[in-house]
Design a protein that fits this description.
The structure is a homodimer of 441-residue chains. With 441 residues, chain A is α+β, with helices and mostly antiparallel strands. Chain A has two domains: 239 residues, Bira Bifunctional Protein, Domain 2 (BirA Bifunctional Protein, domain 2, 2-Layer Sandwich), CATH 3.30.930; 91 residues, Rossmann fold. Chain A is 31% helix and 30% strand. In chain A, the strands form seven sheets. A seven-stranded mixed β-sheet of chain A has the order 3-10-11-17-14-13-12, sandwiched between helices. Chain A has a five-stranded mixed β-sheet with strand order 21-20-22-23-24, sandwiched between helices. In chain A, strands 4-9-8 form a three-stranded antiparallel β-sheet. In chain A, β13 and β14 form a beta hairpin. The first copy, chain A, is globular, with a radius of gyration of 25 Å. At the A-B interface, β2, α2, β4, β8 and α6 of A face β2, α2, β4, β8 and α6 of B.
C-alpha cells in the first residue's frame, strides 16, 4: 500500500505533528508504547474543536438526540451480550524464525512471513482484542472486567434510563464521545490504528418500519457534515457500501477518506436491527421493549448507528490540510516553499493570531487579543519578523493573522491576512468580531 | 459521619440525579458495578460545562499554560518512577466471620469489624490501587501496563516535548483533563469516591527560588475560582493546610467543601519540589534539566500542582444547589414545596428554557430557541401548564425561563422568569442575547 512518495508524506506529517505540538508518542522518554499517542498543545485544541463540532452537530442542535457519558469499564456481561468476548478477535500467527507476529487477514501471502520470507509459521490462533483488567481486590476471573472496545454498548445498556429521564419517545437518539481500547496486534499508520482512541457514536432508536428511512437520513446527514463542515470533496471522500451484511442488519456504509497510505474508514453508518437491544434483554434478564402508549403495543427498538473515529478524523484533516506551496524564489535566489495546513477555520487549533508589528505595540495588541480570545481560539505572538510569524502560523493552519501596526493607533483598524490567499484586508477593530465570526462559522 | 438527616439528604440527591438524568449507576441492568457511574443527558451537559469552565480559566485565558491530552495507558515505568507501583496502596484486612473487607485507616477501631463486630480479623495487607491491563498479545508480566492513577504523571513525562513545541520558558504550566482509575477497596458516598473518575490537573514548572511565590499565587487563584465562579462561600468551603509534608514538598493545601456526609477534598494545591522530574530523569535515563540560556545554567524545574476531581466538583455543586423551598400552601391547602437546584448559571445544564405559553405559539418560540441555542445551553419545552414547566426547570436548576406568550407576537418581547427569586422581567427579543449574556457570565 505504501510507496515511497506516500511514506515520505506520512513522515513529514508525523514530524510536523511532533515539532509543532500536535501529536507526540506516548511515554517517549521511556521508549514509547506502540499504538499510544498523546495530543500536545495545538493537538488538544484541535481535538477539542472536532469534539465540540460533532457534539454541536449531533446533540446540541437536535431535540431528538440526548447526550451520555458512561464509564470505560462496564459490567463484563455487557461484552458477553455484545458478542465481543466470544467473537471480537483477529486470527494471528507467529513466524518461528524471526518471531514477527502477523494478523492473518493482513498478510499478502498467509503462508509466508512478510518480514523475513520464512514459511515456518505457526497455525493461526484467535486473539481477543478486548483489554482486560480487574476490579476489586483480587486479580481472578470473578473480578475480571474489560475496557470498552466501543462506546456504543453502554448506550444500549442505558437506553431506558436515558429515555425515562429525558421523556423522549421513539424515534430518538443517544450520543456519546469517549475513549475505547483495542489490543491491536499491529498498530500502524500513525494514529489511524491505535490501541487507545476516541470514538464519537450516536445510536438512533426507531421503529423497524421506519428504519431504512432513518438510515438514509443519517447517511445523508453525515456525508454532508464531512462535505460541508470539514471540506472533504469528492476527490477525498468515497462511500463504501458493504456487500456482506451481518444477519441482523439491513444496510451498512462506511465513509472513507484518502490518506497518504490509502483509503481509510472514518465513519460507519450502520443499520443494526434489534440485535443489540435483544441481546441485552437476553443477557440481563430485564425486558428492554419500548412501550408505545399511543398504540398500546410494545416494540423492540431498531437501531441506526453513526460511529466516528475522532483520531482518524484528526489525522485525515491533518493529511488533507498539508501543503507545500512554491512561492517562487526568496531573496537569496532559493526556492521559497511555504508549508501550510489548510484547515477549515472551524477546527483550526488557532483561529486568529494577534500580532503586534512591533514590540512597542504589544500592550495595544494584547488588549485586542484579550477581547477576541473570548470568542475564538486565539494566539498572541510578538517574537520574530512579521513574515516569520506568518509562516509559523501557516504551519499550524491559522486561517487569519491580525496585525496591529502603528496606523492602528490612529485609524482603529487592523490588517487581517488570509492564510490561503495571503491577501490582506483592513478591518475596523469595532467590526472585527463580526468579520471573523462570518468567516469562521 | 453520616447521621439520619445526612443520609436522607444524600438519598434525595441520588434519587433526583437518577430521575432527572444527571447520574445513573453504570451497567444498571446487569446489577451495576460498584464505584462506576454514568452521566445522563443533563449530567453530561453539566460535566462538559465544568470542564470547559476550568479549561477556559486555566488554559485558554493564560499564555503561560499549555494544554495536553495524553493516553490513559502509559509505559509501566512511568508508575515505577512515580512511586505508584511500590507505594500506592492501602492497608486492608478481612473479617473472617462476615467476609467484609476494610481499609484499615478508615476503621474506627482497627481491631473490630465495623460490619459485624467480630474481632476475628486478618492481619493488614498492602493492596495496590493501580488497575492493571495487558498490552500486546500475551497476558504476562512483560506485557503488563496500568491505567493511570492520576493525570499528572504524563504531564511530567511530556514536559520537554511540550516545552519545545510551544517555545515556552520557565515559568509555565501544562494542564490536562482526563480519566484516572483507582481500584478503591470501598467506593462510597455516591460519586465522591469512585473507581473511574475525571481529573483536571495543572502542573506549573518554575525555579525553586520562586516556587513559594507561585504556590501562593495558585492557591489564591484556585480559591477565588471556587468563590467567584462556583459560588462556594466561607460556610461551604475551607482550606486544610497539611501538617505533614512529603519530604520533597514545601507546602500543601487542600480545598475542602461541605457535603451532606461531611467535609471532602475537591482540590489539592501542592508544592512537589523537583521530585517528579528527578524521578523521571532517574528512571528514563534521559536528562530532564531545563536549560536557562539567558544565565547559562541548567535547572531541574520545581513543580506546583493544582489538582481537581471533576466528579467531586459536580457532586459538590449538586449538593450545595439542592433546596426545598416552602412556598406556603397550594390551591388544595397542601404545603407547596418547590425543589430547586440553585446552580451558578455558568455550569447549569440548561441555562435558558424557551417555553411557548400555548402550543399555538410553538413555531415562533422555536425560532427564538434556535437563535439562543447558538449561544447558551437551551431547552425547548411545550408540554404541560406553564407552572409545571417552571417547576420542572427549577428541579434541574435552569436559571432563566423565557416564556413566549401571545403578547410577544405584538410587542416582540418575552417574559424572563428568574429561578431563585421567581421574579419576572419583560425583555425585548432583540436584546435577549445581551441580557442573558450579562446574567450568565
Amino acid at each position: 500500500m505504501a510507496d515511497t512518495e506516500n511514506t515520505l508524506s506520512m513522515d513529514k506529517i508525523v514530524s510536523l505533528a511532533k515539532r509543532r505540538g500536535f501529536i507526540f508518542q506516548s511515554s517517549e522518554i521511556y521508549g514509547g508504547l506502540n499504538g499510544f499517542w498523546d495530543y500536545g498543545p495545538y493537538g488538544v485544541r484541535m481535538k477539542r474543536a472536532i469534539e465540540q463540532l460533532w457534539w454541536r452537530e449531533m446533540v446540541e442542535t437536535r431535540d431528538n438526540v440526548e447526550g451520555l457519558d458512561s464509564t470505560i469499564i462496564c459490567h463484563p456481561q455487557v461484552w458477553k451480550a455484545s458478542g465481543h468476548l466470544d467473537q471480537f478477535s483477529d486470527d494471528m500467527c507467529d513466524c518461528r524464525d524471526c518471531k514477527a507476529r502477523h494478523r492473518v487477514d493482513m498478510m499478502e501471502d498467509p503462508k509466508v512471513c512478510s518480514n523475513c520470507g520464512s514459511s515456518n509459521l505457526t497455525e493461526p490462533r484467535a486473539f481477543n482484542l478486548m483489554m482486560k483488567t480487574f476490579v476489586g481486590p483480587v486479580a481472578d476471573d470473578e473480578h475480571t472486567a474489560y475496557l470498552r472496545a466501543e462506546t456504543c454498548q453502554p448506550i444500549f445498556v442505558d437506553f431506558h434510563n436515558v429515555r425515562i429521564a429525558s421523556r423522549q419517545k421513539l424515534p430518538f437518539g443517544i450520543a456519546q464521545i469517549g475513549k475505547a481500547f483495542r489490543n491491536e496486534i499491529n498498530p500502524r499508520n500513525f494514529t489511524f490504528r491505535s490501541r487507545e482512541f476516541t470514538q464519537m457514536e450516536m445510536e438512533f432508536f426507531c421503529e423497524e418500519a421506519d428504519s431504512m428511512e432513518w438510515f438514509d437520513y443519517w447517511k445523508e446527514q453525515r456525508i454532508s457534515y464531512y462535505r460541508g463542515k470539514l471540506g472533504f470533496g469528492d476527490d477525498f471522500m468515497r462511500i463504501h457500501e458493504h456487500d456482506k451484511l451481518a444477519h441482523y442488519a439491513k444496510a451498512a456504509i462506511d465513509i472513507e477518506v484518502k490518506f497518504p497510505f490509502g483509503w481509510g474508514e472514518l465513519e460507519g453508518v450502520h443499520h443494526r436491527g434489534v440485535w443489540d437491544m435483544s441481546r441485552h434483554e437476553e443477557f440481563s434478564g430485564k425486558e428492554q421493549l419500548y412501550i408505545d402508549h399511543d398504540n398500546h403495543r410494545k416494540v423492540m427498538p431498531t437501531v441506526i448507528e453513526t460511529s466516528v473515529g475522532l483520531d482518524r478524523t484528526f489525522l485525515a484533516l491533518l493529511c488533507k490540510a498539508y501543503d507545500e506551496e512554491n512561492l517562487g524564489e526568496d531573496k537569496d535566489g532559493q526556492p521559497d516553499i511555504r508549508t501550510v495546513l489548510r484547515f477549515p477555520a472551524i477546527i483550526a487549533p488557532v483561529q486568529a493570531a494577534i500580532l503586534p508589528l512591533s514590540k512597542k505595540l504589544s500592550d495595544n495588541a494584547r488588549e485586542l487579543y484579550n477581547k477576541l480570545n473570548r470568542y475564538f481560539r486565539c494566539e498572541f505572538d510578538v517574537t520574530g519578523s512579521i513574515g516569520k510569524r506568518y509562516r509559523r502560523q501557516d504551519e499550524i493552519g491559522t486561517p487569519y493573522c491580525v496585525t496591529f501596526d502603528f496606523d492602528s493607533l490612529e485609524d482603529k483598524a487592523v490588517t487581517v491576512r488570509h492564510r490561503d490567499s495571503m491577501e490582506q484586508d483592513r478591518v475596523a477593530i469595532s467590526e472585527l468580531r463580526d468579520y471573523l465570526e462570518k468567516l469562521i462559522d
